[in-house]
Amino acid sequence: MPLRSFTQTEKVVTERRRFERPLLVTVWLGVAALGLVETRWFYVFAATLAVGVNLLSLRRDREVYLDRKFVNAAVLVSTMILAIELLMGPASTLQSVGHYVVLIQLCKLFERKTNRDYVQILALSGLVMISASLQCSAAWFAVVLVAYLSLACYTAMAFTMKRGLDV
Prior knowledge:
Elements: E1 3-5, H1 8-13, H2 16-38, H3 41-59, E2 62-64, H4 68-88, H5 93-109, H6 115-135, H7 139-166
Antiparallel strand pairs: 1-2
Helix pairs in contact: 2-3, 2-5, 2-6, 2-7, 3-5, 4-5, 5-6, 6-7
């Protein structure tokens, strides 16, 4: 797994760390909410591991990424898992698509990130949260949803500032 150090511009001017930390927490919160609703701990564990690795490298001003071929292969494996889940599993289509979006999101976390990738990660995180909210009507989920929405708004504002500083 290659590591790339942040450039001086990424450290000082665009403050990439300030934006990526809430983005990674947003990703984890969405996956954790889906995992709690479905009581599927594999996805929560995988997201915790992926976000933890990214946060650790971010703390050291580095980016962890895989070669594009590996990421594309992981996306194809995720698609095969979706097909198997839809054809063989007793899970509903909504649950299967939620799992697929989580797997795609985890693949995106280990790719070299550009602004387009950040937007895709944030959008996928929103889809995960929508999937979770369609499956749960408990009162505790409302608190999680409000926390997620607040964090997602902060992340979107920080991304807007980062894009402005990129110019």
